[in-house]
Amino acid sequence: MIPALMPTYSRADLAFTHGQGAWLFTERGERYLDFGAGIATSSLGHNHHGLVAAIATQAARVMHVSNLYRVPEAERLAQRLVDASFADSVFFCNSGAEANEGLVKLIRRAMAQTGRPERYRILCCEGAFHGRTLAMLAATGNAKYLAGFGPAVDGFDQIPFNNLNALRAAITPRTAGILIEPIQGEGGIRVASVEFLHGARAAADEFGLLLGFDEVQCGMGRTGKFFAHEWAGVTPDVLSAAKGIAGGFPMGAILATGSVASHLTPGSHGTTFGGNPLACAAANAVLDVLLAPGFLDSVSAKGRLLAAELDAIVADAPNVFSSRRGMGLMLGLTCVPPAAEIQEAFRAQGLLVVAAGENVLRLIPPLTLTEADILEATARIRAAIAPRRAQAGAAAPCVITSTASVSA
User: Fold this and answer.
1) N or C: where does the chain have the smaller number of CB atoms within 10 Å of the terminal CB?
2) For the segment 305-315, what is each residue's pLDDT rounded down to a tens digit?
3) What domains does the chain contain, in order, with CATH numbers?
4) What is the pTM of this model?
């Protein structure tokens, strides 16, 4: 018999009743260090005083009025995002998939409105993940996710990640834009090279295309910059954000330059819940923390500490991990045994992480975690893999992979 809650997830037998900072507590009284953060979403951790207070206060005033009226909380949030980014204008929605749908619509609309309606196709990268709607499944291009849902939505072409020659070769007279995750999360913490991002910008300018960045997972301070593309010094035309933007409250956003955003006119796009007072109160509370002087620098420092600890573990256990990937507080461990087995060993030690592609485990903790949390997590990793190291004995040398930005 099917359960009342549709079985679309293989859920761990854990039910959390409350949390504090980087820690979660189960109904059985167990304590877990949360290095998954709701898949990079609980950016301020659990039970953050400022976020909780902002939500409670706003909920007692008004939660939802619709976008038929002004929403002062949304106006303030949009201005703050504009002031902190490349963008001139922002559209609020409810999720990363919706933000990416809107990003694609905006690129297509801009082409049509400037006399190029034949340009509607988007170049996307292999290994990407852009969401679960029908169109975003096609943008993602993963056969496993597409299986059983009929013909893929037309308009998306996949190219190898970090391959500029392939990107340029794939551009046709029907290409409208390019969509790239500066760091692929679901794909295995794969970092786009600075050369690839600069080359994509140059190709977009040369061929009259629009460049979009999907920063649903890697944005909102996760790498130590407000948005990850800032490390490369490349500016997109349009960007999607979600996950950590409201600290766990459902929200997404499309950020765009004025020349692009101006093509979404009244009636051309919309949302019922997006940008309501409650969601925007939560997101403004998150920005209070992220934009505070020195906070993003602290994320970078904590990222360097965690990366150094993980590098030492990889070097010490090459039979368990072959490399460390990523930057800031978006890091991955490439496993030698099946990642699911290592994830379970971590969980047995009270450490939560998230699986990704290429046999990688993601470590994407709250941005507010402490140095003590980092040292506790790495101690638990060592305890989790100790039996495998003891069984293996001496092993072959390993490879440490990182990026220049990790130590920036």
Assistant:
1) N
2) 999 999 999 99
3) 16-45+308-407 (3.90.1150.10), 49-290 (3.40.640.10)
4) 0.93
